[in-house]
């Protein structure tokens, strides 16, 4: 019996493959230092847990509207709008079972087979996967490394736009490279989107994972709110990766399509969790402040550990919970030609597990630098220090 041909175009979240590898190594009795997966090993705030249990006891366990319960859509529209300096109403919100579903539903809502969608590369691998699975042409744009981090290669992005381009995926505070746009870069992207009449998916998964200063949003730029869908997730800020709840926020025309897709895909997002999310948005910030403070402590430890290694130098990122160091000098010292040699060698010699650049989109043919990615959200500060010390010995040995 046959299976659908388009399955061959469907990718995966490749960090999970590294998790399997690390799990097998742990089964052999090794203590693994898990820098590979952007999960969060911190507790969801108590007020959210209590609100969830209350909603269950109150019988909020049946179906609810496909676009989400009204109190949550009202709370989320206000929260997102105020923090970005724009106005949204509940009609601009569709609640989702996580952040990820917004990617596929956005593409389904705006793209026809053969259309082109621009996406960041390196970037979250589900962008590329969903575009190609749904019959589109995934067109990557890239980044340029600087002393301060990474900038979007605007020349390449501009030259990649054709008459078939319908949308641009923009992930500020970016996974995996932590890239943060300056106001000038954000305005240049907005200018391109408006000039070429493109839809924009603003992946704001890490919008509130900011350790210093304030976040900026492309929807605040005139002409962008009416063409931008925001991907929102509760997973990061509230340490709720396994709860699977998020939202799509944007123009009512597209939100209605996304909600129609909800009916076909999952009927609705879990009812009782939605009631708890109202508490998450309106309740005290004590729990979330503690989460952010802990992640900042881990960031500082991980940055210090990497910068202590001869051959690695990275700036301290202001957002997300990832680090993306250039390891050209390490590869040369070890005599390696492929990043998987370094990744496997590190696991087997130090018990440190991390992802490589190749786990975040297909590398372009002109890439010559080597990068690896560390996530520090699921590992304690003490283990970060221990793991980095072991990695230093291995990386500095030829």
Report on this structure.
Helix 2 runs antiparallel to helix 9, helix 4 (101-110) crosses helix 8 and helix 10 (286-307) packs parallel to helix 13. The mean pLDDT is 94. The chain folds into two domains: 5-43 and 287-395, Alpha-Beta Complex (Aspartate Aminotransferase, domain 1); 62-282, Aspartate Aminotransferase, domain 2 (3-Layer(aba) Sandwich). The longest helix has 22 residues, at 286-307. The protein has a seven-stranded mixed sheet with strand order 2-10-9-8-7-3-4, sandwiched between helices. The protein has helices spanning 15-27, 46-57, 70-84, 101-110, 125-133, 154-159, 183-195, 252-265, 271-282, 286-307, 328-334, 339-350, 381-395, and strands at residues 33-34, 93-96, 116-120, 137-141, 143-146, 149-152, 165-170, 199-203, 228-233, 246-249, 322-323, 352-353, 355-356, 372-375. The protein contains 13 helices and 14 strands. With 398 residues, it is α/β, with parallel strands linked by helices. Helices cover 40% and strands 14% of the residues.
CATH architecture descriptor of the largest domain = 3-Layer(aba) Sandwich
- Please report which band the strand proportion falls in: under 5%, 5-15%, 15-25%, 25-35%, 35-45% or over 45%: 5-15%
The number of helical runs is 13
CATH first level of the largest domain: Alpha Beta
Keywords:
2 domains, 398 residues, 13 helices, Aspartate Aminotransferase, domain 1, seven-stranded mixed beta sheet, alpha/beta, Aspartate Aminotransferase, domain 2
Summarize the structure.
With 398 residues, this protein is of the alpha/beta class. The protein has 13 helices and 14 strands.
């Amino acid at each position: 019996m046959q299976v659908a041909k388009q399955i061959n175009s469907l990718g995966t979240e490749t960090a999970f493959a590294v998790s399997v590898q690390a799990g097998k190594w742990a089964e052999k009795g090794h203590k693994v230092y898990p820098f590979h997966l952007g999960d969060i090993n911190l507790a969801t705030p108590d007020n959210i847990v209590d609100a969830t249990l209350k909603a269950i006891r109150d019988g909020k366990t049946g179906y609810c509207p496909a676009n989400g319960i009204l109190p949550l859509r009202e709370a989320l529209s206000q929260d997102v709008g105020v923090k970005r300096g724009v106005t949204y109403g509940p009609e601009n919100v569709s609640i989702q079972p996580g952040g990820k579903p917004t990617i596929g539903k956005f593409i389904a809502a705006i793209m026809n087979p053969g259309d082109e969608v621009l996406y960041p590369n390196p970037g979250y691998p589900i962008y590329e996967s969903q575009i190609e699975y749904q019959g589109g042409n995934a067109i990557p744009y890239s980044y340029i490394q600087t002393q301060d981090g990474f900038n979007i290669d605007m020349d390449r992005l501009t030259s990649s736009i054709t008459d078939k381009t319908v949308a641009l995926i923009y992930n500020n505070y970016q996974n995996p490279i932590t890239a943060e746009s300056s106001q000038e870069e954000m305005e240049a992207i907005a200018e391109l989107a408006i000039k070429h009449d493109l839809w924009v998916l603003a992946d704001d998964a890490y919008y509130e994972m900011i350790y210093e200063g304030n976040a900026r949003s492309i929807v605040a730029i005139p002409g962008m709110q009416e063409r931008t869908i925001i991907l929102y997730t509760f997973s990061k800020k509230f340490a709720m990766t396994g709860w699977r709840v998020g939202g799509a926020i944007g123009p009512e025309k597209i939100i209605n399509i996304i909600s129609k897709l909800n009916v076909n895909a999952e009927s609705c997002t879990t009812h009782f969790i939605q009631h708890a999310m109202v508490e998450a948005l309106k309740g005290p910030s004590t729990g979330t402040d503690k989460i952010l403070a802990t992640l900042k402590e881990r960031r500082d430890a991980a940055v210090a550990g990497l910068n202590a290694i001869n051959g690695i130098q990275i700036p301290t990122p202001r957002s997300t919970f990832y680090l993306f160091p250039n390891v050209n000098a390490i590869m040369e010292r070890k005599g390696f030609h492929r990043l998987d040699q370094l990744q496997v060698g590190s696991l087997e010699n130090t018990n440190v597990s991390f992802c490589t650049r190749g786990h975040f989109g297909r590398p372009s043919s002109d890439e010559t630098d080597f990068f690896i990615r560390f996530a520090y959200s699921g590992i304690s500060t003490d283990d970060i220090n221990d793991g980095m010390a072991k990695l230093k010995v291995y990386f500095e040995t030829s």
